Amino acid sequence: MKKISDMTVSEYQRLAKRMDRRFGPDIAWADLPLAKRLGRPPSGEKREQLTVHSVKMSAREWKALQAEARALGTTVNALIRTVLRPDVLPQVVEAAGLHA
Fold first, then answer.
1. CB hemisphere CA count around 28 (13 angstroms)
2. In the chain, where are the structural domains located?
3. How far is CA 51 from CA 48, 61, 87, in A?
4. Which of 95, 96, 89 is nearest to 71 (CA)?
5. DSSP three-state, residue 52
6. What does each C-alpha distance from 65 to 58, 84, 98 come to in angstroms?
7. Is the pTM of this model over 0.70?
8. Burial, 39: exposed, middle or buried (Cβ in 10 Å; 0-12, 13-18, 19+)?
9. Of 29, 33, 35, whose CA–CA distance to 94 is shortest?
10. To the nearest 10°, the Cα dihedral for 83, 87, 89, 90?
11. Residue 2's Cα: distance from chain center in Å?
């Protein structure tokens, strides 16, 4: 991604519009695509245990997944979870400011 100082006016306007869709004042706090705090959870907070699994795919497929996840403002793992659990997909799409 270019630095803001290196962007043309039209590029900056597209970026500002995209950020406003994702983080604008009309988005509820719970729906914002914010990164969770890194590290251990606060004392007393219960988290679901996650296990590591692997998925084999070509480098081209992985890069396509990465690009799609980046466009949605999420991770590849979160994108895969939305495909496996379609009930979460509308929340991800709306948080990214997209329309299905």
1. 4
2. 58-100
3. 10, 23, 21
4. 96
5. coil
6. 11, 14, 17
7. no
8. exposed
9. 33
10. 160
11. 19
Helix/strand/coil for 71? helix
Residues with Cβ within 8 Å of residue 72, at least 6 apart in sequence? 79, 92, 93, 96, 98
**Residue where the block lists tokens 């043309």:** 8
* 37 residue type, one letter: R
Residues 6 or more apart whose CB falls under 8 angstroms from that of 99 comprise 93
Return the residue matching tokens 């948080």. 95
Report the distance separating Cα 19 and Cα 22, nearest Å.
5
pLDDT at position 60, please?
93
Identity of the residue numbered 98: L
Alpha-carbon distances of 15 from 3, 21, 23, rounded to whole Å: 11, 10, 12
pLDDT, block means (10 residues), the chain with 100 residues: 84 87 76 64 74 86 89 80 72 61
